[in-house]
Design a protein that fits this description.
The chain has helices at 30-44, 58-68, 94-100, 102-110, 123-140, 152-163, 207-210, and strands at 2-8, 49-54, 76-77, 145-150, 180-186, 189-197. By secondary structure, the protein is of the alpha/beta class. Helices cover 35% and strands 17% of the residues.
């Protein structure tokens, strides 16, 4: 059995407020660095990691570097974990996107399984891509523990796939920054052992550290 420890990256300056961040390359804030180091300590106290896989977007890679450090592991970039490309909406606030195209914004909020960003990607295609990447990682590291560091979109879609829930349930999950989601993978399939465990970072900045924005 393989253990996947799926982690959303730490806090960044653009985490405050609802915004379509996607592939925007923003580094961790000081809070994000503190969260990542605390997460590295938490993981090192519970598992012996064999590898760390990450999105190459800088906020995820910075988090992965901290998580790999106690084990002397260099994070491996995996394109399957790369964040959503929102195309023309990249960097926009929710309100700005709504003003540009109210109908498409409503689809995103109410029927995310049917949403495709203008000039960008759909949640459905990212769901397939990210799950394929996670299963390939698990197969590569049979009977080992591995960390996967990515983004709220990817974490949501992985959890939905593992739980067998539709993509239209996308907004019903809210992964916290540096929260842990633990999945056991065997030939019998995937079992979600833990979801959105952020207890190790909650004390860092009160409600700010414990609260996740929507995207």
């Amino acid at each position: 059995m393989t253990t996947l420890v799926i982690v959303r990256h730490g806090h960044t300056a653009i985490n405050d407020g609802d915004r379509f961040r996607g592939i925007t390359d923003t580094p961790l804030s000081e809070l994000g660095l503190q969260q990542s180091r605390r997460t590295a300590e938490e993981i090192a106290g519970r598992w012996r990691l064999s590898a760390v896989y990450t999105s190459s977007v800088v906020r995820a890679r910075m988090t992965a570097l901290e998580i790999g450090s106690p084990f002397g592991l260099e994070p491996v970039d995996d394109p399957g974990l790369y964040d959503m490309d929102y195309g023309e909406w990249t960097g926009l606030s929710f309100e700005d996107a709504r003003m540009r195209d109210a109908k498409l914004f409503r689809t995103c909020m109410e029927r995310p399984g049917s949403f495709r960003a203008p000039g960008g990607q759909s949640f459905e295609e990212l769901r397939g891509r990210s799950m394929a990447a996670a299963l390939a990682i698990a197969e590569r590291h049979e009977d080992q523990a591995v960390a996967i560091v990515s983004h709220t979109v990817i974490v949501r879609l992985l959890l939905l796939a593992i739980l067998g829930m539709p993509t239209d349930s996308f907004w019903k999950l809210r992964p916290g920054t540096c929260a842990l989601n633990v999945v056991s993978v065997s030939r019998g399939g995937c079992v979600l052992d833990c979801i959105n465990d952020g207890c190790h970072v909650r004390s860092l900045a009160g409600k700010r550290a414990a609260t996740a924005s929507l995207t």
